[in-house]
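Pipeline run #58 for the internal structure catalog. This entry was flagged by the ingest filter as a single-chain record with no existing model, so it goes straight to prediction. Upstream metadata was stripped on purpose; only the residue string is passed forward. Reviewer on rotation: M.T. Logging verbosity set to normal.
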Amino acid sequence: MSTEAGLRERKKAATRTALSQAAMRLAIERGVENVTADAIAEAANVCPRTLHNYFSCKEEAILAALEEQIGAMTDAVRARPADEPIWDVLQHVALSQLTGGSGDPAEIFAQMRVVKTSPALLALDLALFDEMERMFAEAIAERTGTDAEVDLYPSLLSAAAAAAMKTALKLVSTGRNDASQADLITEAFASMRAGLPEPVRSTP
């Protein structure tokens, strides 16, 4: 790839990121129903036509940051040491991506609240969740010598890990559990790894 072509691709990626960040920020501030394509474009300092070159609708732009995070998490799974147990890999990636760096808890919760307010966003979010499971399954298959299109294990493990992350985040976002986000993610993975043993009931 030439220097000019590389610069052009980086510029396109930066524009897409600026649009997605502006879209999510406006959705959090104003509510999805009050966000327009023109407002997103203005906030990102581009013309409205540029927005439509990258996204088919405002909802797609709003969720683009979540889509990028899924890609980053999948890359992180592939980047872990080859001899690291797969459950350790998935837990490490979940903790590092969702509780540190770009995974700001307040931002994640604000995004989750935005998604809940819009049927269109909920539908796209479900599709993204399915995409995350598919991408995770492919990465798991590469690490475990299995076939994501044939074998049960990579898809099953991917679904379990995705459910652990989503459930922990959802519980934290309600504010009804005093545990930290990291502690709940760790507990969720521990429960999955142990086969979801039934909780010990306290004696009355």
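catalog note: The two ends are 69 Å apart (CA to CA).
catalog note: The longest helix spans residues 3-30.
status: ready for reviewer M.T.
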